[in-house]
Each structure stands twice: as structure tokens, then as C-alpha cells.
């Protein structure tokens, strides 16, 4: 286990261009990130391609054993990783935040290592024996986001490594230190050259997407960037797993218990201060219980402390960057100007250091309002009133994205009927955004394609091969 200072020093380059990363809560420097070039990327890809065959030849059992050791390494450095993550990304140490994220990294590594992937017998009729196998792709490119930089990086690289691939990671320019530190820790248990993080700008990401030696791209981020990756990967016919933008809807049925669901609704929407792809971003509540739900939800929101992530008392932090802060502020002000009611929040302290925007609930808002129709990706939740379930479903399905959705009810059977009518990759019942390493996860419509997690996630990192004899 390294100290925090030693961990930070291990990823601080001795030579070459660097960039100062600032704490979004204080504006103070966190550390120096290398500014890698396209040439650095090319060297990393070449090293990965050289290391991959020997790694693939080890077989599933040996690779899984290495991933389990990597999970142990993450746990040995968990507090140091969480502190760095909190300072760079802004999320607090406590609550479903920095320590939670580092713990999830270890959990997903272990899940990838221990999920069984058996050879599938397709036909065995005495004359034909056809078996379906999954072979390594080769080198996988992983492009991650700034909201859950460590956890989503693990979502990408753990199954890729388990399936016998090498990986080159390109972290977000906003949160490179967290990913560089995580990769440093993982590499304590992995062969040289197999896993590399390249911290560069857009030109590095563009090169990764088009690189002829990259067999697959995994990307989590905006729909616009995902479309650009699709185009740039086309000439080399890369395999793709894309988890893109979402604007998740939740529907509260008239039989729901407002007090019982209030905390679940809050964390569904405000986990990571709302900066989560599969967070609850539009809430539709039946008119009969609309006032009761908004009242109970406002009580929960008012009790959640926001501030510097290193303060053990806080569970909400700043927005990670000023660009995202400005988006949230613009959408809330547009809602206010339209006549919607700001039930709580909506008035950030202009004198406060950092990108803090208060937890905000907006009521009496039209479904066509920009705060509803656009993905805010921050701590502002519009709550829309509906009269019939058909109206709610029509509104929930009315956008061109469909990552997740949720239904809230005391009647599970009725909730499942509503869930079956929603256009989303995952629909949760009485919870929202609860991902599980055993359960496939992916989007519908323009929220991307491909599945992660579980057996299906492993298959997505292999090339299917049928042996027919």
C-alpha cells in the first residue's frame, strides 16, 4: 500500500508536458496530469498488441486469478484512491460517492473474474456437433467519462482483460489523475504493457477510435461523441459498446406511499450530485399524490449536506466542471422564467468557492420545458404532474434516449405492466440506477448499444467462433 502522496507522485510525470488539475470544490491544485500525444498512444497500442497473445494464452483461470489479485490491490489502496477521487471529481468520501466508487471497482473486478462463461453447444444430434466459443478480440480501447471515472473504467477493462484482451484507456480530460492512479494500482498485478492509460486531448481519443490495431472501442459519454466514434471507427469495422446520454424518466403510480419512496427517489436523482448517466432526471407523479410526493421529497433534499468532499459529513459535492454548472444553471433559470415553481434550491451562493449548485426541485413544470426535454446532468429534478398512466408513458417515451427508467408503486404486478411499456434498456421497480455486476446493462434508442456486466458483458468482449464438425 502506498501513501496518498506516494500514489500521486507515481502518476506525476518527471518530464514532458503536464496540466494542472484543480479541485472543483476549492479551485486548488490537485496534481499534475501528463499531456500525452498521439505518438504516446501509438506506442501504448503497440505494447498492448505485443503483450496480448501471452495474456490470452494463460486461459480464463489464470487471468481470473490475476484480476482477483488486482481487486485486492485496489482494496489495499482504497482510502488513498478515494481521497484522490474526491479531490479531483468533487464527490464526497461518504454516501454513495468516493469510497463507494472505489469499493465498486473491487466488486466489479471480482465479478468479471468469477462469472462463468461456458462453451455453448448449439447442435449435438449425433451427426453434427456445433459449439459456440468466444475468442479474444486483441486490443480494446476504453474511453471513459468524468462522473464515475474509476468505476466506469473498471466496467470497461475488467471484462476485456478477463476475455484475454489488452486495453488502452483514455480517461476524461477532467479526471485523468483518478484513472492514472487506478491503472497504476492494477498494474501491480498485471503483465507489463497489457494495460495503459493515455491522458491526452481530443486528438488522442480520435486516434484511438480510428487506430487500425484497436479491435473494439468501449465508450461511456455523450451521444454526440458516441456518434463521432461510430463514424471514425467505421473504416476499420471496429466492434463497439456505447453507453451514451440518458434522460431517465420515473413514474410514480397513484398507489405509491410518498413517505416510503422519498429517499429512494432522492438518491435515484441526486446520486453523485445528479451527475450520473442512469440517474432519475424526469419524475412523473400522479396528480392525486403530487403534492404529497413533492413535500416528502423536499424534506429529504433539505436534510442532505453539500460541501467539500473531504468533509466526512457531506454527501453531496460540487459539479465537476464549470461547463456542467452553467448547463444546470441555465436550465433551472429557463424553468423559473417559464413560470415553474422552484420548490427548493435554485439559488446558488455566488460567493462560494467551487462549482456548487444546490439540490433543486422544480414543480408545476410543463413536459416540453427544456429542463425536462434536455439532460441536465446535475442536481435539478423537474417533477411533472400527470392524470392517466397512458399520459405518463407517452411523456416518458417521448424522447430519443432510453438508458433507464423506473416505476414506483406498492403493487409490483401493476408496476411491471407499466415497466413493460417503457422504452429503456433497464426499468427498475421502486429504485433507480441500481446497477449490479451480475445483470446486463445497456441503452435503448440513442442511449447507445451493446451490453455490459454479467455473461453478456463478457461475450461482448470476445469474438464469437462456431466450431462445426
UniProtKB/TrEMBL annotation:
Keywords: Oxidoreductase
GO molecular function terms noted in the UniProt entry: oxidoreductase activity, acting on the aldehyde or oxo group of donors, NAD or NADP as acceptor
Superkingdom of origin: Bacteria
Pfam family, one: Aldedh
Domain Aldehyde dehydrogenase: 15-460
Catalytic machinery residues: 243
Presence of keyword Kinase: no
InterPro entries: Ald_DH/histidinol_DH, Ald_DH_C, Ald_DH_CS_CYS, Ald_DH_CS_GLU, Ald_DH_N, Aldehyde_DH_dom, LUC3-like
Homology family: Belongs to the aldehyde dehydrogenase family.
Protein name: Aldehyde dehydrogenase family protein
Source organism (scientific name): Arthrobacter oryzae
Amino acid at each position: 500500500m502506498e501513501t496518498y502522496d506516494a500514489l500521486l507522485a507515481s502518476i506525476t510525470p518527471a518530464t514532458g508536458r503536464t496540466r494542472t488539475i484543480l479541485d472543483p470544490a476549492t479551485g486548488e491544485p490537485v496534481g499534475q496530469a501528463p499531456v500525452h500525444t498521439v505518438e504516446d498512444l501509438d506506442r501504448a497500442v503497440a505494447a498492448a498488441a505485443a503483450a496480448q497473445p501471452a495474456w490470452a494464452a494463460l486461459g480464463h483461470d489464470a487471468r481470473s486469478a490475476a484480476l482477483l489479485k488486482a481487486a485486492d490491490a485496489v482494496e489495499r489502496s482504497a482510502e488513498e484512491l478515494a481521497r484522490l477521487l474526491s479531490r479531483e471529481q468533487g464527490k464526497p468520501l461518504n454516501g454513495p460517492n468516493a469510497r463507494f466508487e472505489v469499493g465498486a471497482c473491487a466488486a466489479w473486478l471480482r465479478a468479471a473474474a468469477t462469472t462463468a462463461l461456458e462453451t455453448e453447444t448449439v447442435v449435438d444430434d449425433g451427426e453434427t456437433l456445433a459449439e459456440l466459443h468466444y475468442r479474444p478480440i486483441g486490443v480494446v480501447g476504453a474511453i471513459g467519462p468524468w462522473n464515475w471515472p474509476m468505476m466506469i473504467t473498471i466496467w470497461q477493462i475488467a471484462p476485456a482483460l478477463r476475455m484475454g484482451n489488452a486495453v488502452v484507456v483514455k480517461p476524461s480530460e477532467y479526471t485523468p489523475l483518478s484513472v492514472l492512479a487506478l491503472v497504476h494500482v492494477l498494474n501491480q498485478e498485471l503483465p507489463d504493457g497489457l494495460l495503459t492509460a493515455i491522458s491526452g486531448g481530443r486528438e488522442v481519443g480520435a486516434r484511438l477510435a480510428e487506430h487500425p490495431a484497436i479491435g473494439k472501442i468501449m465508450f461511456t459519454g455523450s451521444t454526440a461523441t458516441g456518434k463521432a466514434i461510430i463514424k471514425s471507427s467505421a473504416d476499420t469495422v471496429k466492434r463497439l459498446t456505447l453507453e451514451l446520454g440518458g434522460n431517465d424518466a420515473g413514474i410514480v403510480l397513484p398507489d405509491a406511499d410518498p413517505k416510503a419512496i422519498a429517499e429512494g427517489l432522492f438518491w435515484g436523482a441526486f446520486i453523485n450530485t445528479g451527475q450520473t448517466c442512469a440517474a432519475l432526471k424526469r419524475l412523473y407523479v400522479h396528480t392525486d399524490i403530487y403534492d404529497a410526493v413533492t413535500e416528502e421529497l423536499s424534506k429529504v433534499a433539505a436534510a442532505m449536506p453539500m460541501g467539500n468532499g473531504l468533509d466526512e459529513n457531506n454527501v453531496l459535492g460540487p459539479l465537476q466542471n464549470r461547463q456542467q454548472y452553467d448547463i444546470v444553471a441555465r436550465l433551472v433559470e429557463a424553468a423559473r422564467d417559464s413560470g415553474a415553481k422552484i420548490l427548493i434550491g435554485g439559488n446558488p451562493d455566488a460567493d462560494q468557492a467551487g462549482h456548487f449548485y444546490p439540490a433543486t426541485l422544480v414543480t408545476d413544470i410543463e413536459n416540453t420545458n427544456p429542463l425536462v426535454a434536455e439532460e441536465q446532468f446535475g442536481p435539478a429534478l423537474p417533477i411533472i404532474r400527470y392524470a392517466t398512466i397512458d399520459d405518463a408513458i407517452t411523456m416518458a417515451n417521448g424522447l430519443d434516449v432510453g438508458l433507464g427508467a423506473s416505476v414506483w408503486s406498492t403493487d409490483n404486478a401493476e408496476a411491471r405492466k407499466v415497466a413493460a411499456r417503457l422504452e429503456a434498456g433497464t426499468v427498475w421497480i421502486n429504485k433507480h440506477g441500481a446497477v449490479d455486476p451480475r445483470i446486463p446493462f445497456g441503452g435503448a434508442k440513442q442511449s447507445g448499444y451493446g451490453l455490459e456486466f454479467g455473461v453478456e458483458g463478457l461475450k461482448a468482449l470476445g469474438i464469437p467462433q462456431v466450431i462445426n464438425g
